Amino acid sequence: MTKLEPPLAMLMELTHRCPLKCPYCSNPLALDRARDELDTATWKRVISEAASLGVLQVHFSGGEPMVRNDLPDLVRHARAEGLYTNLITSAVLLNASRMAVLAEAGLDHVQISFQGAEQKIADHVAGFRDAHAKKLAAVRRVREAGLALTLNAVMHRQNLRQLTEMIGLAVEVGAQRIEIAHVQYYGWALKNRAALIPTRAQLAEATAIVEAARTRLAGKLTIDYVVPDYYASRPKACMGGWARRFFNITPSGKMLPCHAAESLTHLIFERVTERGVADIWASSPAFEAYRGTAWMAPPCQGCARAEIDWGGCRCQALALAGDAAATDPACGLSPHHEAMVALAEAESAAGIEEFAYRMIS
Amino acid sequence: MTLTDASVPALARHVRLRFDAARNCHVLLAPERVIMPDAIAVAILECCDGAATIGAIADALATRYAAPRDAVLTDCLDMLNDLAGKGMVTA
């Protein structure tokens, strides 16, 4: 067993409230309510504990983190603790005065999601009228405030044809970085998979567009690319390995090794209101469950890639192979891989377009 | 963009260099990136104040560490060009 290293990053889901209804939202299907959210003092304590543990970057996320009025206080506190601060936002609430307050609080970086390159598809996917126009205004405010800007382009079958325009938009608004992320199929996205999953040909075309853009825009725009691994031959190193680099705090204070981990209902996730962040990181049974390689069964156990992909994603293993400790079916060595590919091919060709929009039930 | 000894490098506005007590090393922080520069890289980066040229930085470091100036300049150019390609250093 190698020595446990400190985590690099913490994702703080300040709230699950959000004006948008994106059908691929990474929040769980069972959303936390406003009355269950952690208060400001608790979030500040969590930030300080994370900094002491060795966390270097904090991501303020949600839901829409800007619905919390204490966001500038939390950003200021994180900066005082030496942390690199990142706001992950839909930007529909990012008006001029709130931008000024956040910049003054010391915010380093803003990540704004785009649902398409033009209003019609973007507003349709977001389930929110004028979302696209508000985002365009907000990206300019971020640039004028001198903050680093990333565009999050969330791609799927219904907007992939706009990928070239999305990259063009990032250049036009002066973003340093674009994250082109194909939808990952957990939570709401799993529920909406048939309406979202691309065909294999669409994926190949998108990958070629990204590779050409990376060459053309080297040194000008950083392009991070996340592929949907249903068509992959090897799984992604989900979260860089379970409980290895990263953790997430839910609005009500559960500490998770990944934002989708609550789908693993056999694990008990402890709360930061009951136990310290460092203790949970080091010894919570849920964090230790799939940490490292000892938990692995063949073909992962003994595989030369065991410490490269860490067995892939536990949530996907449970969802598609029925066992959270199985090899991620995205791996060609998984006995469930062919069924996964067949599912993707069938659903992507079935012509289902209608979304089940995200909402608090 | 390729940097030369006449370029005046600085960390990009959104990039921060600081010491991390938990890991006992310096860290370079940027959007979704953490880099742990070695001691030579830290010495170079601490000279990137937006006023000194790379040539002047190489002069200063060659003197401070009693090292051959050509080798120091090569180290500076290699590292700063790499970071400029990642958008972390501007000139």
Automatic annotation (TrEMBL), chain A:
<feature type="domain" description="Radical SAM core">
    <location>
        <begin position="4"/>
        <end position="220"/>
    </location>
</feature>
<dbReference type="Pfam" id="PF04055">
    <property type="entry name" value="Radical_SAM"/>
</dbReference>
<keyword id="KW-0408">Iron</keyword>
<dbReference type="InterPro" id="IPR006638">
    <property type="entry name" value="Elp3/MiaA/NifB-like_rSAM"/>
</dbReference>
<keyword id="KW-0949">S-adenosyl-L-methionine</keyword>
<dbReference type="InterPro" id="IPR050377">
    <property type="entry name" value="Radical_SAM_PqqE_MftC-like"/>
</dbReference>
<keyword id="KW-0884">PQQ biosynthesis</keyword>
<dbReference type="InterPro" id="IPR058240">
    <property type="entry name" value="rSAM_sf"/>
</dbReference>
<dbReference type="InterPro" id="IPR007197">
    <property type="entry name" value="rSAM"/>
</dbReference>
<comment type="subunit">
    <text>Interacts with PqqD. The interaction is necessary for activity of PqqE.</text>
</comment>
<comment type="function">
    <text>Catalyzes the cross-linking of a glutamate residue and a tyrosine residue in the PqqA protein as part of the biosynthesis of pyrroloquinoline quinone (PQQ).</text>
</comment>
<dbReference type="InterPro" id="IPR017200">
    <property type="entry name" value="PqqE-like"/>
</dbReference>
<keyword id="KW-0560">Oxidoreductase</keyword>
<comment type="similarity">
    <text>Belongs to the radical SAM superfamily. PqqE family.</text>
</comment>
<feature type="binding site">
    <location>
        <position position="18"/>
    </location>
    <ligand>
        <name>[4Fe-4S] cluster</name>
    </ligand>
</feature>
<feature type="binding site">
    <location>
        <position position="22"/>
    </location>
    <ligand>
        <name>[4Fe-4S] cluster</name>
    </ligand>
</feature>
<comment type="pathway">
    <text>Cofactor biosynthesis; pyrroloquinoline quinone biosynthesis.</text>
</comment>
<feature type="binding site">
    <location>
        <position position="25"/>
    </location>
    <ligand>
        <name>[4Fe-4S] cluster</name>
    </ligand>
</feature>
<keyword id="KW-0479">Metal-binding</keyword>
<dbReference type="InterPro" id="IPR013785">
    <property type="entry name" value="Aldolase_TIM"/>
</dbReference>
<keyword id="KW-0004">4Fe-4S</keyword>
<dbReference type="InterPro" id="IPR011843">
    <property type="entry name" value="PQQ_synth_PqqE_bac"/>
</dbReference>
From TrEMBL, chain B:
<protein>
    <submittedName>
        <fullName>Pyrroloquinoline quinone biosynthesis peptide chaperone PqqD</fullName>
    </submittedName>
</protein>
<dbReference type="InterPro" id="IPR041881">
    <property type="entry name" value="PqqD_sf"/>
</dbReference>
<dbReference type="InterPro" id="IPR022479">
    <property type="entry name" value="PqqD_bac"/>
</dbReference>
<dbReference type="Pfam" id="PF05402">
    <property type="entry name" value="PqqD"/>
</dbReference>
<comment type="subunit">
    <text>Monomer. Interacts with PqqE.</text>
</comment>
<keyword id="KW-0884">PQQ biosynthesis</keyword>
<comment type="pathway">
    <text>Cofactor biosynthesis; pyrroloquinoline quinone biosynthesis.</text>
</comment>
<dbReference type="InterPro" id="IPR008792">
    <property type="entry name" value="PQQD"/>
</dbReference>
